[in-house]
Amino acid sequence: MAASGYSDLREKLKSMTPHRDDGKGRKRKNRESDDDECEYSDDSAELREQEARRVRSSILQKSIFTPEECALIEEKIDEVVANGEAGLYREHTVDRAPLRNKYFFGEGYTYGAQLEKRGPGQERLYRKGEVDEIPSWVHELVIKRLVSNGVIPEGFVNSAVINDYQPGGCIVSHVDPLHIFARPIVSVSFFSDSALCFGCRFQFKPIRVSEPVFVLPVRRGSVTVLSGYAADDITHCIRPQDIKERRAVIILRKTRPDAPRLDSDSPLSSSPAERPAPLKAKRSHRKADPDAAHRPRVLEMDKEENRHPSLSRHRRHSGSSENYWRRGQDYDKHRESSGRKVKMRRH
């Protein structure tokens, strides 16, 4: 049991969950801190509802994988975990954090504490070959199914990330880097059901998560496609209370052809002599055990500073899921003309 009295962050958050009134009053309160309260008027509530509709209109979800297919893929994910524990992957393939491990395949990128200069737009792809190739089973069992079901075109995916969450794990509010990844963002969920939340604010010391603008249930075996407003104009996150059992997600993306790399224009690689020593993945001394994801540990948040997302209430582009390919191709023009001010986090 941690010193705070909680071994699982979900228990702590239950007592801090923002509350609403019974729907009959004129205002509802969202407690942000011990001495700070935000009140939402009826007009503000309507704006949030409009925001939620824009988010939902730019999300596509499909149930494609059967329980039997999920079980087979989950065995392969366990093999990835075991290989990572055994040190069989390249240095930048594995990124460990309390209650959440990442496995980069095909392409990996720097973010958070790895950056010399932090902030949206500073992320850089690693040099080619610094992460392992996408495993053949991801192509055969996952990507081909998505292509055959019309979710993505053949040859779209060149980056696959497996996020493996333990109960109470999370990932803070962020927007997938626009200068790194084309749209859409495709993810497939395994092991258990969860939820993807949009427009949350994470606060720390103590940890709190504000009320989401929109909560999307994510079922085991479901495919979620983010484009348009949901991908570009509002942050998304995984809250600790939404990971009740071990959960893994495979995120499939395409890097932009002009995405910057560490060996091109990044200050981190201006010359071999100035390049900082490579980060080494944390190694565990315990025997490789896929079931370790179920063991509760005290959560420590990502080490980067928290950045509060802002809801863009005066700019509305509600692109539907049917035109997300066009939106990806028109990204540069869209970025110049939209004047978006959404604050982003990396993951």
From TrEMBL:
Keywords attached to this entry: Dioxygenase, Disulfide bond, Iron, Metal-binding, Nucleus, Oxidoreductase
GO biological processes: mRNA export from nucleus; mRNA processing
Coiled-coil residue spans: none
Disordered: annotated segments: 1-47, 258-347
Regions of compositional bias (Acidic residues) in chain numbering: 33-44
One GO cellular component term: nuclear speck
InterPro entries: AlkB-like, AlkB-like_sf, ALKBH5
UniProt signal peptide: none
Compositionally biased residues, Basic and acidic residues: 8-24, 287-308, 324-339
Cofactor(s), by name: Fe(2+)
Compartments it resides in: Nucleus speckle
Reactions it catalyzes: an N(6)-methyladenosine in mRNA + 2-oxoglutarate + O2 = an adenosine in mRNA + formaldehyde + succinate + CO2
Location of the Alpha-ketoglutarate-dependent dioxygenase AlkB-like domain: 85-242
Matches recorded under Pfam families: 2OG-FeII_Oxy_2
Gene Ontology molecular function, alphabetical: metal ion binding; mRNA N6-methyladenosine dioxygenase activity
EC identifiers of the protein: 1.14.11.53
PANTHER family assigned: RNA DEMETHYLASE ALKBH5 (PTHR32074)
Family affiliation: Belongs to the alkB family.
Protein name: RNA demethylase ALKBH5
Organism, scientific name: Seriola lalandi dorsalis
